[in-house]
Amino acid sequence: MIHLKTAAEIDTIAQAGAILAALYREIPGEIRPGVTTADLDRWAEAFIRSHPGAIPAFKGLYGFPATLCVSVNHEVVHGIPSTRRPLKEGDVLSVDCGVKLEGFYADAAITCPVGAIAPEAQGLLDRTQEALARGIAEARPGHRLGDVGAAIQEVADEAGYGVVRELVGHGVGRQPHEEPQVPNFGKRGKGLKLVEGMVLAIEPMFNLGTANVRTLPDRWTVVTADRKVSAHFEHTVAVTADGPRILTG
Questions:
Q1: pTM of the prediction?
Q2: Within 10 Å of residue 204's Cβ, how many Cβ atoms?
Q3: For residue 17, what are the domain limits?
Q4: Is 203 annotated as a binding residue?
Q5: 87/224 Cα distance (integer angstroms)
Q6: CATH number where 219 lies
Q7: Is 177 annotated as a binding residue?
Q8: Is 2 inside any structural domain?
Q9: 57 in helix, strand or coil?
Q10: Cis (ω within 30 of 0) for the bond into 176?
Q11: What is the pLDDT of residues 134-190, one digit of tens each?
Q12: How many domains, in total, are found in the chain?
């Protein structure tokens, strides 16, 4: 069942999203060679809890042990922070985080370079972020989920990247994951019609190589099947009469 949000509820999600936006403005300064993914996780939890009423949305969710999902290089999503995981020059780090505030959730992700990275990896980051922007532009009343997915897929197809299909975006609100699912592929004019009051997490995941992925024995970390680099960007977006409103921007 899809839960449409009132203007007041969207404003509350935007307040949670503003904390995430602030976190993502700050965290690139914390990402450098030698820092462990556990260091970043501790920093992020303290940052979120420094805002009255805000709590890390992912910590304990479905049993996940941390505030951040931190995924390095060929890890697509859901990497677990570790004190034994120092970052190295040339790594690519995906950071996915959520905030819960006054009973509502916001969700966003970015992928960052660690120092200087390979040009092909930087191209992947740039095009994945471009695909997110194109997908968001389609999130307006009267459009369809297929329009969002097709806009994202077109960027990947132009660049020759693999589009992860097993993992998709989703609705967000009083629960961190709500209906509908929001695939990063599709056909224009197809799928569920978007209406005012929907709030969606739109989150393209592109791979330098194959679209195929697998889950590691830790039952969380999803990796590319060919171990090539992956990138992930995400915003929480409200469908409004005035067009898409980015709540985590």
A1: 0.97
A2: 31
A3: 7-246
A4: yes
A5: 19
A6: 3.90.230.10
A7: yes
A8: no
A9: coil
A10: no
A11: 999 999 999 999 999 999 999 999 999 999 999 999 999 999 999 999 999 999 999
A12: 1
